Amino acid sequence: MEHFIQAENFGKIAPYLTLFWQGTAVTVLMSLFTVVIGFLLALLLATMRLSRFCPLAFLGVDKEGRLRDGGVLLAVSRFNPLAFLATAYVEILRSTPVLVQVFIIYYGVFGALVTLPKFTVLGFIKFERFVPGIVALGMNSGAYLCEIIRSGIQSIDGGQTEASRSLGMTQMQTMRFIILPQAIKNILPAIANEFVVIIKESAITYTIGVQDIMSAVNAVRGATFIIIEPLLVATAIYFCLCFPTSKIIAYFERRMSRGDRR
Q1: Which of 93, 137, 178, 202 yields a CA-CA distance of 20 to 30 A from 210?
Q2: Strand-pair category, 125-126 with 120-121
Q3: pTM summary value
């Protein structure tokens, strides 16, 4: 009976370590691009969800200029299409598997609607597979980061908004100079934690041919018919990426919270 883990198998997979290093580079780059895309998308979605754009607001007022007590017209007057679209996007993306989203983006969008040029970056990153991967993960991350940013904005005392308006600042200036700087400080640890989550979730992109860490595991398995040892190597790499990152995040979180203590 063979042992569950055999030491000599690590020697057999040693010639394929280059694949693991390349996969690590792809995973880190993908995570960085995904966080940037997800943050920008989340900022837009959070702004849409917090907007007060009601184009049919005039229906909520009767002929005498008084607010209606109820009815369909009052409900329609309060309809915010921007908030509706953003909410629908967030709920759909958060309620469906990441794998399904990756397949839809890769096969449905970039496979049928958009054709990407085929070339490699740094000699091992396939552009036509890397881009759909970061787009799919960025869209998924944006849905989660949207709620983080929205909660951060809503956590700021409303009195600061009133004070800024009393000084003559516009709503855009208030959001840019007063609300967002404080909100980002509060949610920065959560955004950084999202980076750690994406490092782990990026493993799903090997299913569309992205040359990440799990792709290296799959290649080694196909060449050597060994599976447990490559998985252990992948586990160690993910641990070395995620654990120190989470500790660094915790350190900066403590440093940033010192000023808030009384």
Answers
A1: 93
A2: antiparallel
A3: 0.84
The number of residues making up the chain comes to: 262
pLDDT (tens digit, 0 to 9) for every residue of the chain, 262 residues total? 345 677 777 888 888 889 999 999 999 999 999 989 998 999 899 988 888 887 777 777 777 777 777 777 777 778 889 999 999 999 999 999 999 999 999 999 988 888 888 888 888 888 889 999 999 999 999 999 998 888 888 888 777 777 887 888 777 778 777 887 788 778 888 888 888 889 888 889 988 888 889 989 998 888 888 888 899 999 999 999 998 888 888 887 777 666 555 5
Domains of the chain by residue range: 7-49+79-257
Pick from 230, 226, 243: which is nearest to 17 by CA? 230
The architecture (CATH level 2) of 7-49+79-257 comes to Orthogonal Bundle (1.10)
Residue 48 CB coordination number (10 Å): 21
